[in-house]
Amino acid sequence: MKVSTLLPSRWGLGVMLSGFVLLGACSYTHEGIPAPACPSLPAAISYKTNVLPILQDECYRCHDTQHYQTLALGTFNMENFNEVKYWSTPANGHNGQSWMIGNMLGDTNNGFKPMPYDGVHGPDACQIALIKAWVDAGAPNN
Ligand code: HEC
Fold first, then answer.
1. Short-list 129, 139, 141, CA closest to 29
2. Does residue 116 have its Cβ closer than 6 Å to ligand 1?
3. What is the per-residue pLDDT across 31-46, written as a single tens digit (0 to 9) for each?
4. Which of 19, 95, 107, 140 is the most buried (most CB within 10 A)?
5. Whose CA is nearest to atom 19 of ligand 1?
């Protein structure tokens, strides 16, 4: 009898607590990206420390110096920062969004091409949000 009367209130407390945890974890969101439980963004996002490792893991197998010229249509060498900057600039993009972010979001409705091109793996929502925040800060080479 004790157990059955206690259970609902403990369950309720659990729901309340996990609600707080979720609210706390969703400390930032970005336009067009669902609010995931992401680690908080560094105050100043560094290209070399924060962005580059993601590109190396997810994109270099096609977009590094060794591979980019073998791509069917792309001529984007990510080892050249000026090219990363060019493709990250919304003004050089499409519908107000850079190709870099639009492609990573797989935003085909707005004419973007989903990346990675072969659909194998790819950056998660938190990594895309981080790269978008770096783009929004003007894509500095820092
Ligand atoms: C499996 C190979 C492959 C991977 C991995 C890949 N890409 Fe691409 N990428 C391509 C190809 C091929 C094109 C050219 C597509 C086209 O023009 O239709 C391209 C084009 C692009 C373009 C536009 C440049 C252009 O010439 O149209 C951007 C921006 C881009 N990729 C970003 C990324 C990002 C960011 C990643 C990592 C998240 C990534 N790609 C991973 C193959 C790849």
1. 129
2. yes
3. 665 555 899 999 999 9
4. 107
5. 74
